[in-house]
Each structure stands twice: as C-alpha cells, then as structure tokens.
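ARCHIVE CARD
Drawer: 12
Card no.: 0347
Subject: one protein chain, sequence and derived structure
Cross-reference: see card 0346
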Amino acid sequence: MTYIEADVKDVLLCFPHQPDSCPRVHRFSVLKFMMYAFMLVTIFMTVFGNLLVIITISHFKQLHSPTNLIILSLALVDCMMGCLVMPFTMVRWVEGCWFLGDFLCQIHSSLDMTISIASILHLCLVSVDRYVAICEPLQYRMKVTNSKIAVCLATIWLFSLSFGFGIVLSKVNALGLDTVVTPCVGYCALTFNKEWSVIGSLLNFFIPGTIMSCLYLKIFCVARKQAKVMSERTAVVKPCETSHSSEQRERKAAKTLGIVMGFFLLCWLPFFMANLIDPFLNFMTPVDVFDALIWLAYFNSMCNPLIYGFFYPRFQRAFKIIISRYVLRLSDANNLIL
C-alpha cells in the first residue's frame, strides 16, 4: 500500500459511503467540547433574554408603545435566530459537515439571511424612532403611531423574506462560481459572487449602518444642546448642582449611544467586510475564520435585549415583577409597581 492510499483512508468523511463526500474537520475532543459549551450558552442566553423581553412587553399594557412595539418585533427576530438558525450553524461549524440534506440547507441559509437582515433593519428603525422622539418631540405622537410602526415592521419582514429566500432559491449569488467553488456532499455555506457581495453588503449593512450612525450623532448633538439649555435656565438657582447634572446627562447620552453603535459595529462590521472583500480575493478566507465572524454577528442577537431592554429602568422593574411572580413564585411580587 502506498503512502497516498494510506493518507486517503485516514481522511474522515461526512458521509463515508459516498465518494463525493466532504472531508470532516479534525478537532481535538477538548476543543469540540469548549466550542459546543460556548455556543450552547450563547444560544440559551439569546433565547432566554429575548423571550423575557417578549413576555414582558406582551404582559404589561403600560409598555404597549410604538417604541416597544419595535423592541418586541426585534426580540422576536432575535429569538428566532437563537431557535431556528444558531443550533444548526453550531453543528455545521464544529463538525465541518451538514447532515440534513440540500433542501434543509437551502431553508437554513434562507432563514439565516432573512433573520439577519430583519435584525439589522429593526435596529435602524429604532434609531429613526429615537431621532423623531428626541429631535422632534412635539410632533412625535402625531408622526409615530402604532399603526405606522406596524406598517414599517411589515415592510421590513416582507423585504427580509423576499431578499433572503429569493437570493438562495434563485441562486443568483452563485452565478459564475462553478469553477471557483466546487461543493461536495455535506457542504452548506452561502457563497456570493462579486456583484451580489457588493449589493447585499450595501443594502443590508452599510446603508442602514450609515443611517444609524448619522441619526445617533444628530441625537447626541441635540441632547447635548438640550442639556445646556436646561442648565442655563436653572443655573441662577443652583449653579453648581445644575452644571454637575448637565455633565451627567451628557455623559449618560454619550455612553448609551456609544454602547448602541459600538456593539452593532463590533458584531456586524467584521463579517460584512469579509463578505465584501472575500470574492475579490478569490475566496481565500479560511472557513473557520468566516464561521467565527458569523458567530460574532450572532452575538448581537444576544446583546440586543441587554441594550434595548434591560438598559431602561421601566423594563428592569417589569423584569423583576415577571421573575419574582412567575419564576420564583414570591408572594410579595404583587406589591411591586411598574
């Protein structure tokens, strides 16, 4: 037996009885255990955190506002990410194989793209809502109503579904890649040609991200001006205390907006930069690097409840009531006030 034959026999395949099967990834057992443990914790926190937001907003009528309707829909999107997408992506990354067939691969890829786009567009809609609320407060109730928000959310869902499933099922993203990418049995990954990598990245990240950045920058400037006006009006009465409170408000506004944009860019920018550049580099990005960037993007779905839900005092009180009354079964939970 030659050395070449020995090497071929030593290669683990996703489907050993199929000659055109993809090779299985070799990983140490300790590494596989650590990867599964980390990703399972991420999935659990994503599902639990977003479910808590959904239950809280649905349960308390005081939270039924246009802003919270967006947060509710965002939590639903991120919860779907944790339930329908992340578990299957986890197995595919760790094992290096897709075991569920080509049809379910297409469904998974479509859902992955659809939910990712919907999550980003929801965050963009949140920034628009906050902009109107802070920069045009007198017109907010007239401009932003539950019915208008419902139309915007329906449009986001329709666009995300059309784009995600349309791209995958039509396979326009893979036109001209037959000689570059040769998928084997057990392979399940979205590969974009140069045209669609640019179109997809612009429509689904760079344009919404630019809108968010501009709006939050404007919000910060307006909030800073409002804080200065308030401090000037009351400076005659308590000059020292007013100056200190004004500085606190400015720092809090900067901190909040910095956290919002920081997490968004940290999670999504690396993936979309790689997705945009990789086709022009002849797909030289290692598979593990791409999968790591995908999970960094998924991490945003886990952080969204922390940023857009748990961050606000009214939500915190609502969470305490929900957990105390229905999880811990505490009798004094009925005395808590939202």
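Annotation on reverse: Residues 119 and 223 are 26 Å apart (CA to CA). The chain is about 75% helix and 0% strand.
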